[in-house]
Amino acid sequence: MGLAKHLGLEINEHIEGADSNVALSGGYLYIYLGDDLIHIASIPSPNILAERSSDSVIENQDDFQDKLGNEYSIAIFSSITGIHWYLEQYPDDDTTLMQLHYVVKLNEN
Q1: How far apart are CA 32 and CA 46, in angstroms?
Q2: DSSP string spanning 24-57?
Q3: C-beta separation of 32 from 102 below 8 A
Q4: Could you tell me the CA-to-CA distances from 33 to 42, 49, 67, 109 in Å, in that order?
Q5: Total domains in the fold of the chain
Q6: Do 59 and 86 touch, CB atoms closer than 8 A?
Q7: How far is Cα 49 from Cα 52, in angstroms, rounded to an integer?
Q8: How far apart (Å, rounded) are the C-alpha atoms in residues 101 and 55?
Q9: pTM of the shown model
Q10: Where is 2: in which H helix or E strand?
Q11: Can you tell me the distance from the alpha carbon of 38 to that of 30, in angstroms, rounded to the nearest whole number?
Q12: How many CB atoms lie within 10 A of CB 22?
């Protein structure tokens, strides 16, 4: 049971993530499967005029495929507290998921 829980937590690191930087001018989330860039998703600018953090959230959603035809759907949330993303749709293959990693590149202000 401990190993299964550990694998579940490790998989979660590959299907969701966060960055504490605020995307004032937006940016891009580069999605890699191993060494291959499989998609570039847009990170929206948050509503910086919002009075509350929860009101500052702007969402973007993208659908894409890898070279093997696996389908993915990602939701990206940008707020005045940072960026959060997670895969809503992904293949049911732990080996593939373990190869996913992300790079955040913010636009310059």
Answers
A1: 24
A2: TT-EEEEEEETTEEEEEEEEPPP-TT-SSGGGG-
A3: yes
A4: 18, 36, 10, 29
A5: 1
A6: no
A7: 9
A8: 29
A9: 0.88
A10: helix 2-15
A11: 8
A12: 18
Q: CB–CB of 94/9 below 8 Å?
A: no
Q: Counting every residue, how long is the chain? A: 109
- The DSSP symbol for 70 reads -
Reading the block at residue 55, the tokens are: 């009101």
Q: Cβ distance 80 to 5 under 8 Å? A: no
Cα gap 33→69, rounded to integer Å: 13
Could you list the residue range(s) of the whole structural domain that residue 19 is in? 2-106
Question: Residue 13 corresponds to which tokens in the numbers above?
Answer: 């690191």
pLDDT, tens digit, for every residue of 27-65? 999 999 999 999 999 999 999 999 888 899 999 999 999
Residue whose entry in the numeric block shows the structure tokens 């690191």: 13
pLDDT of residue 52: 87
